[in-house]
Amino acid sequence: MSVIIAKDLTKIYRMGDHEVRALRGVSLAVEEGEFVAVTGPSGSGKSTFMHIAGCLDRPTSGQYVLDGKDVSKVSKDELSRVRNERIGFVFQGFNLLSRTSALDNVELPMLYRHKDKFRAAERHKRALGALDAVGLGSRYHHMPNQLSGGQQQRVAIARALVNEPSMILADEPTGNLDTRTSIEVMGIFQRLNREQGITILLITHEMDIAEYGTRLIRFRDGRVVADQPVLHRRNAADELAALPPPEPDVISPPAETTTAGAAH
Amino acid sequence: MSLLMTIRIAFKALGRNKMRTGLTMLGMIIGVAAVIAMVALGTGAQNMIEEQVKTAGTNLITISPGSAQGAGGVRTGFGGNTRMVPEDAAALRNLPEVQAVAESVNTRTQLIYGNQNWQTTVEGTNVDLPTIRSWPMKYGTFFTDEDVRAAAKVVVLGSNVSDTLFGEGVDPTDTQIRVRNQIFRVLGVMSSKGASGGGMNMDDQVFSPYTTVMKKLSGQLNLNRIYVSARSAEDVAGAAAAITAAMRTQHNTTADSDDFTVQTLDDIVALRTQTASTMTSLLAGIAGVSLVVGGIGIMNIMLVSVTERTREIGLRLAIGARGFDVLLQFLIEAIVISIFGGAFGIAIGYGVSEFLRIYQGMAASVPVNAVAIAVLFSAGVGIFFGFYPARKAAALDPIVALKFE
């Protein structure tokens, strides 16, 4: 079954007098269980596509069907609901609530559920489960500024998972991370995709990150210019095993360093 | 999302920045405390006035003659007719609601003692005056029924008059003074009473039997006033009605043709209380300005907060918050600040007014309705000043908000 069906999507922004045609007719489908990497230079339309795919925006024309539901023309509030139930977001900047524990951050999407609301105990249990699935260890009650970049991104992935969405939409998830941590985060995506069959849409401009996916879609000038399987797929788990062990932490790492994430 | 959950989220958000929340609340606290303390002082003053008037004798009723219409339609002013006579006072004395009656005639004249003289009012009255006015003597005694019957040439001085003629601290009892070239014997001096409800200096007058004033000083046959004290302060209105009825019988008049006026102190009390309540409103109004300033402080902080938390708002929208959820969250944050500020403000305002009452001896009492108004008003301030920032937050585009630096 197709998670995403896009038919002839266009998006036109008006900037004063002139129009910017960000998407000029994009048609594609993403099947359940796929790990799709979307790449392209800036201005190629990949971000615009990501916004429409993530139900953050509506296309100017064309049809966008998510999980069997046409969401091209629904209201803003309905889009919120679709995002809450069907899409898990992971951003470059993590976007965790500051001075809020990892656990509370992960519980957040459950607070905004419109139906099948969970009781506090159930929310707690699910949040713990999601944090375990991304391997955060026992730092449930740490604040974001007490976590490394890699750990923060794990919390963000747990938050994306917690409402059991149809698809995880990761927008440059390794953009703020060093190489080793990037591989670790991609390893988490690969594992979730392989073991739980979660559909992942990865937006990145780095080709080597895109190669962790199963399929590569390349945008240019608002159109899809290439759509092919990844031939030499990278495997994060193998790469991590081949890397030299991380430098041991003699003292507690400073809060802001991202390299420390590799130590765990 | 449920309201309860939104309230919890708002509390968490406020808890994340305790310093700022506290300072914003402070504006509200000061505003509400000021209003409460000011209203307490105003209300205290009001209560004090009522208390004072009560001790002056709220059961005092004054009967004055109306105007008279002469030949050719010329009307005298209020109190101009001469139809109120001692027989009217005698009739009122028989009413069960009436405790005491004092006739009143007065004239201005010159008093002379030795080389001192003084122009003042001679108030002709009867023996019940000290009772009706609850007015004790300073020196000597008041005149007696015998003096009234005999129209005796005796006089009781007001304290100012005594001070002027005899010097301060001198007891003039049993001396003789000249009143309009007649010799009067001084029986005593009234204690000092200060200004009357109408503002007249009560101590600048002397008292003689009304019969003496009528027959030997002014030569008039009618009374200028009749003062009556009702049997109880609670039944002043009933006594006034009975007096009106009795006066109508005496004068053979109806409501349309009454030639007298019956007045109770209630009217004066009402006027004084109104003055005090105007004062209260004025004080509360000034204090209210600081409440509004506090409200603007909330709006200011909420606007800063919305800008600062743009990415948070973007995230909340991205993970499924509707615009309404965000609106509600920020609105509740503002309301929580204002209500908690209001609650602390009430406590502090109450504390301040208690302090003033106990340690400064000022009359202060916090009225319950002022507290209720302060609570409602502070919630209102929260909604009013929180709405604009909250709407601004709710209207954010998640894409723009997520990228906000």
Features:
heterodimer, A: 264 residues, alpha/beta, Rossmann fold, six-stranded mixed beta sheet, four-stranded antiparallel beta sheet, 26% strand, globular, disordered C terminus, B: 405 residues, alpha+beta, six-stranded mixed beta barrel, 17% strand, elongated
Question: Can you describe this structure?
Answer:
The complex is a heterodimer of chains A (264) and B (405). Chain A has 264 residues and is α/β, with parallel strands linked by helices. Chain A has one domain (2-244): Rossmann fold (3-Layer(aba) Sandwich), CATH 3.40.50.300. Chain A is 32% helix and 26% strand. In chain A, a hairpin with a 2-residue loop joins β9 (215-220) and β10. In chain A, α3 packs across α4, α4 (120-133) packs across α5 (149-161) and α5 (149-161) runs parallel beside α6 (179-196). Chain A is globular, with a radius of gyration of 19 Å. The two termini of chain A are 37 Å apart. With 405 residues, chain B is an alpha+beta fold. Chain B folds into 2 domains: 3-52 and 271-403, no CATH class; 60-261, no CATH class. Chain B has helices spanning 3-15, 18-55, 86-93, 129-132, 145-150, 159-166, 210-218, 236-251, 266-308, 310-318, 323-359, 368-394, 398-403; strands at residues 60-65, 98-113, 116-125, 137-140, 154-157, 176-179, 182-190, 205-209, 225-230, 260-264. In chain B, α1 (3-15) crosses α11 and α2 packs antiparallel against α12. The longest helix of chain B is centred in the last third of the chain and has 43 residues, at 266-308.
